[in-house]
TrEMBL record:
A Pfam short name: BrxC
Gene3D superfamilies: Glutaredoxin
Gene: ytxJ
Organism: Chryseobacterium piscium
Name of this protein: Bacillithiol system redox-active protein YtxJ
């Protein structure tokens, strides 16, 4: 990775994905996440892999998760540049304006909270 990529949020490095993330790469994955929300809360993090701010917010949020003992939440990750149609579907289905980065909290199939940029934190979920 080049120095400029590190500063300006170039391509996401391989192997960085944290073990608590489940990825959304299809409408079927999104349906599974929504189904999961009937058992426990689901947090969907919509991330722009080309945005430095999104990368910084993601890292801070991941640290928050790692330092918590929260186990009643399923964490889902969406690369919104690669899977833009799914990101658009989320915005449309939950009637939430698209932002990046964005955290959407789903419970019983409905969005109960959402946050973007520096407002994203674990406190939005619990």
């Amino acid at each position: 990775m080049s120095f400029l990529d590190k500063i300006f949020g170039g391509k996401q490095e391989q192997g960085e994905t944290k073990s608590f993330w489940k990825t959304i790469k299809s409408e079927e994955d999104l349906e599974k996440a929504i189904k999961q929300s009937y058992e426990n809360r689901v947090a969907v993090f919509k991330h722009s892999t080309s945005c430095f701010i999104s990368k910084t917010v993601l890292k801070n949020f991941e640290k928050e998760i790692e330092n918590s003992d929260e186990q009643n939440v399923s964490f889902y990750f969406l690369d919104l540049l690669t899977f833009r149609p799914i990101s658009n579907k989320i915005a449309e289905d939950f009637a939430i304006r698209h932002e990046s980065p964005q955290l959407i909290v789903i419970e019983n199939g409905k969005a109960i909270n959402n946050a973007s940029h520096q407002d994203i934190s674990l406190s939005q979920i619990v």
